Amino acid sequence: MSSVRTPRRGGRVRALAGALGPARARLGRALRAGRELVVTRLGPPLGVISPIGWTLLAAAVVCWVVGLRLHLTELTVLAAVLTVPLLVAGVFILGRSAYRVTMDLSSTRVVVGERALGTIEVMNDSSRAMLPARIELAVGGATAQFLVPRLAPERAHEEIFAIPTRRREVLVVGPVRSVRDDPLGLMRRQVTWARAQEVYVHPRTARLDGFETGYLRDLEGTPSSALSSSDIAFHALREYVSGDDRRHVHWRTTARTGRLMVRQFEETRRSHVVVALGNVGVHFAGEAEFELAVSVAASLAAQTLREEKELTALSVDARLSARTYRSLMDDYTLAATVRARHGLRDLARTASESAPSASAVMLVVGSGATVTELAAATSELPVGVIAVAVRCVDGASVRRSHLGGLEIVDVGAIEHLPRALRAVAR
């Protein structure tokens, strides 16, 4: 007698799951298509209704449904009263915008404390007069509004605006939108005309007098008062001393005087300055102190560029662009504090590796930088380099001190920097 095998339960489950798989996939595709339809087709029309408008619309719908279903005249009348403002608001936002809006910024780079100036022009391109309108300009997290009067055909209206700058940042100006709304604020329709633009608010800098930033021997440098036995700038002849290179013996003078004479040269030098911003967050007592440090570093770097000396600009987390003044100030605009356990030491090591032939390293640090950290940073610098640490202490007076081969000068305001550097140069 043959036995009939019944399929295992696990096999039935797998078969059911296999059958439901395609259906689940079709359902997912249908849901995604429905969501895209709502976002692309219904999103813009529904987006014109404000939160107050949605509240009023919901109240009107409830009153209509309950009033008609329960035959309550009071609720039906209330529903009609609530519906009228919605219909009036819809009339306010109807119509096409037949004008053109452009925004022009006079400069996309300003310094903290200056005003960023710009203009907005509204042009009526249609053949009919344009009703008064409102233009909104987004500036960072705020919004500025401009009222445009009635414009005749082919006429333009221009608005000049000024943006005050109080701190170093990249300020996003724009976009420019035209706005239509009703007096009750139930509906709001806006059209974007001009794209957003970035305005770099550069740190304040101090104009520094020419200051000595250290020199090293270099065949492509300029002559100095230091004398050398091997260089390219000829200075004079002197008598031979044991150890001199015989290739520099001047044989004609030797034959005439009967003594061995060698050429002596003026040592040529060049200046390669490293400006290192120690942007370690725990080293600064507050935001004002860090802003002072950024201004000091930017001032030192800018002066180095003006004097056409070689510059390497660094921070703990980045190497700044020193190709042009503009790119350098843009990078200082983006500077921010970081968390780093051995920030100054790592910064000095990076400076030594990036510019091994540097003649001077200017460390810009906060008031929280300890003597131990400064000593550890100095030990990473190349031998013979001129090392100066500018310690930014908000409100402090200029004070000079030494730590081994490191010159330390305290600065309390950006206006004190020229005097502080003159004190170091003495």
Question: Topology of this protein?
Answer:
Layout: H1 9-47, H2 51-70, H3 73-93, E1 99-105, E2 109-111, E3 115-124, E4 133-139, E5 142-148, E6 156-164, E7 169-181, E8 188-194, E9 197-202, E10 216-228, E11 233-239, H4 251-257, E12 261-270, E13 272-277, H5 287-306, E14 310-315, E15 319-320, H6 325-333, H7 343-354, E16 360-366, H8 371-379, E17 386-392, E18 399-403, E19 406-411, H9 417-425
Parallel strand pairs: 2-9, 13-14, 13-16, 16-17, 17-19
Antiparallel strand pairs: 1-3, 3-6, 4-5, 4-7, 7-8, 7-9, 10-12, 11-12, 14-15, 18-19
Helix pairs in contact: 2-3, 5-6, 7-8
Number of strands: 19
Strand count, sense and closure of the main sheet?
Answer: 7 strands, mixed
Major sheet: arrangement of strands? 15-14-13-16-17-19-18
- The count of domains is 4
Protein name: DUF58 domain-containing protein
Pfam family, one: DUF58
Organism: Brachybacterium huguangmaarense
Transmembrane segments: 49-68, 75-95
What does this entry look like structurally?
- There is one protein chain.
- With 426 residues, the chain is of the alpha/beta class.
- It folds into four domains: 45-94; 99-202, Immunoglobulin-like (Sandwich); 220-270, no CATH class; 272-425, Rossmann fold (3-Layer(aba) Sandwich), CATH 3.40.50.
- It contains nine helices and 19 strands.
- It has helices at residues 9-47, 51-70, 73-93, 251-257, 287-306, 325-333, 343-354, 371-379, 417-425, and strands spanning 99-105, 109-111, 115-124, 133-139, 142-148, 156-164, 169-181, 188-194, 197-202, 216-228, 233-239, 261-270, 272-277, 310-315, 319-320, 360-366, 386-392, 399-403, 406-411.
- The chain has a seven-stranded mixed β-sheet, with helices on both faces. Strands 2, 4, 5, 7, 8 and 9 form a six-stranded mixed β-sheet that branches.
- A hairpin with a 6-residue loop joins strand 7 and strand 8.
- Helix 5 runs antiparallel to helix 6.
- The N and C termini lie far apart (116 Å).
- Mean pLDDT is 82; it is low at 212-235.
